[in-house]
Amino acid sequence: MDNRDHTPDQGGPSPKTASDRPEGAAASMPGFARLKAAAAAARFHGLDPDLQDFVADPTEAVPSAAALARWLDDQGAVAQGMVVRWRALVRMRAAPPIVLLLRDGGAALMVGADPERGVVWLRDPLEDDAVAPVPVDALRLEHLWAGDILLVRRRRDETEADAPITMRWLARMVLREKHALRDIGIASMTLSMLQIFPPLIVMQVIDRVVNYRSMSTLVSISGLIIIFSFYEVLLSYARRELSMVLTTRIDARISLHVFSRLLALPLEYFERQQAGNVLGRVMAIYKVRDFLTGRLMTTLLDLFTLVVILPFLFLLSPALAWMTLAAAGMIGLVVVVSMGPVSRLMVRQLSAERERGAMLYESVAGIRTIKTLALEPVRRQMWDEATARVIRWKLDVGRLSNWPQTLAMPFDLFITRGIILVGAFMALENPASVGVGALVAFMMLGGRVAAPLVGMARLLDDMNEVLASLGEAGSVLNQPTETRALTTGLRPRIMGGLVFEGVTFSYPGASAPALRDVSFSVPAGTMLGLVGRSGSGKSTITRLLQGVSRSYSGYLRLDGVDLREINLTHLRRSLGVVLQDNFLFRGTIRDNITAGRPGLTLDDVVRAARLAGAEEFIERLPAGYETFIEEGSTNISGGQRQRLAIARAVITDPRVMILDEATSALDPESEAVVNANLERISQGRTMVIVSHRLSSLVGCDLICVMDQGQVVDIAPHAVLLERCAIYRTLWRQQNRHMSDGPESGPASLPVSGG
Question: Fewer C-beta neighbours within 10 Å, C or N terminus of the chain?
Fold first, then answer.
């Protein structure tokens, strides 16, 4: 099945735009055959990846196996790149389709193998599925292929990307590094065994060398110490290196998953939450990461020492060994008893710190307003109060935590200092029970045993903050995501026919519905204006069209397909949306215009800028299209930012365009330029325009009048003036200086924003 059957029709009056080519911008990139081959392998498993979702790495001439695997993973598959030899490849007779990455940047799809005849059956991914595969032997294939393959399969269970972020989720992520954990475990066990010998050697030095004044024994023991020390240094370096690699891999995986999960949250969630609060909660996951890769890993590695050395302690002196374990157990008991109260205070401290962080973010984001209104004293007072709350809770946590530390300290001192006194007493009372050398060896080994025991007890104390931080992060990251809607669903060819049937929608927490039984339909290629008083539901209709909100009742169909059945990524890529307040990213003007389609050419960018009326001011800039836009778009005007946003929307040449007060920031001259240019591309394209200025909607095919979430009337401008009282009242209010009547209003193209 050709993927073009599922790609939105992006034709239009600009025949040279990249989106008019087959498969959009992807078809023109080098290595397009690799994309087609990977998509074909995924379709064998019931998946239908969208080629438009692939984001090429600018450092790669053709898509690598890693880039293809990342793309397929986002589409619901599990993909892995490998390097195999011919002998292994030809034995994969029962395997599903395998993607062979060729030397020239192309690809082939292996659909069968015959080891007896020594051939594999290959199919060209750019050919139709009906074309029969051809047999290829080792000699012919090795001229084209270096051994790189891509294996693809479907996910069969809940993956790390979908599972709730809990301690179990994090533990599974750590346990995925089985090979690194195995190597670290072997190194730790070997180190623990090597650490036994120095104390035993010291015992021999005291009992034999010193007592018997044997120089030859001292030389032999010294040689052994040097050898053991060399291997201990070498293994310690290897374990630190392995631990560092392990922690960085885990850190990278957590960061990737957290950011992906954050992007998958629906827009409605971010609209209900304070941005600084969300960031504060999400960043709490890194406290958990530090715990997993820091204190927890160190303590677990020290347990190897405990397992190996503890038997030798009982061999040296059972009585002293039991005393050491009892003291460490008392420390653990004190910590466990204090966990509950400290945990409750820790949650309040984290909440206060999160609120303070949110205030800091809000102050930085709104610094222009603060400076303009001279709000520095007010914000400073609010910051002082937030800091006072943090300090108060931090002091409470510190004071409560001080008590268990104080109660545990005598047992800690007994382990490090008291044991030697008890041992000395035992040696004096009964020299046969423990010798001087054995006592010194016990102290050397006992310190190594006490450290992990005490560390485990203190590890439980750290769990308070870790669990609280995990709860904070989970309160954001475990919210329902759009992942399924973004990766599954239909990908029909978008033409632009819209049908609303009894659509009712309410915002969470609202007392009244934003839309009530809205029903109307417009054919493809219609210019639809939406007018009404503030709060009448105009912008809500555009939100539903974009799939921002899907919890409505009734039916909303696009070209006869229920909007909720359409793949969300496919839907949003098929729309061109311009809002009243548009965000531009830090980067060049060219990068911002091509944000949704990085593969488009400079010619496409220039054409889109010309349509949006932005070409004139861009060419006056010193760097032209390479001009860097600062954070917050501070180096361009509001009207310029709006025109760049329009260029970003029209560059994909969408079949449906939504303009929500899109030209409100433009001066009359710029608005006239935009209207004149957009008139050319509006032919044969559905346009939904929200505007408070009725004069800009006169040229619409239909104008839908909204009031209190309901459709009052829908008709052309002239008809509405005659039969719709609300529309007639709005028209007269905006045109008091002109005589009533349709002929009196300027017939601008309906591209005004609002």
Answer: N
State both tokens at 728: 């007639």
Query: Which strands form 527-532's sheet, in the order they lie side by side?
Result: 575-578, 656-660, 686-690, 527-532, 702-707, 710-715
H runs (alpha helix) in 45-159: 65-74, 86-89, 138-142
pLDDT at 711: 92
Separation of alpha carbons 37 and 145, rounded Å = 15
**What is the pTM assigned to this prediction?**
0.65
Segment 612-663, tens digit of pLDDT:
888 888 888 888 889 888 767 777 877 788 888 888 888 888 889 998 887 6
More confident site: 558 or 466: 558
Q: Which two tokens stand for residue 183?
A: 């190597």
Q: Which residues pair with 113 in a beta bridge?
A: 120
Closest among 152, 115, 131, 120 to 35, alpha carbons compared: 152
The residues near 584 (Cβ < 8 Å, ≥ 6 apart) are 592, 629, 633, 641, 644, 645
pLDDT for residue 754 is more than 60: no
CB-CB contact of 654 with 742 (8 Å): no
Q: Please, which residues have CB within 8 angstroms of residue 162's CB and are 6 or more apart in sequence? A: 483
Burial 710-725 (b: 16+ CB within 10 A, else e): bbbbbbebeebbeebe
Task: Give the C-alpha distances (Å, rounded to integers) separating 206 from 199, 424, 439, 712.
Answer: 11, 15, 10, 101
Residues facing residue 150 across a β-bridge: 81, 99
The angle at the Cα of 78, spanning 77 to 84, to the nearest 5 degrees, equals 130
End-to-end CA distance of the chain: 43
- DSSP assignment letter at 14: -
Rg, Å, the chain Cα set? 35
By DSSP bridging, strand 134-137 and strand 145-154 are unpaired
- Element housing 391 (H / E): helix 376-413
Residue type at position 29: M
Sign of CA dihedral 605, 577, 560, 750: negative
Amino acid in position 555: Y
Residue with tokens 């890993």: 297
Of the chain, the percentage scoring pLDDT greater than 90 comes to 7
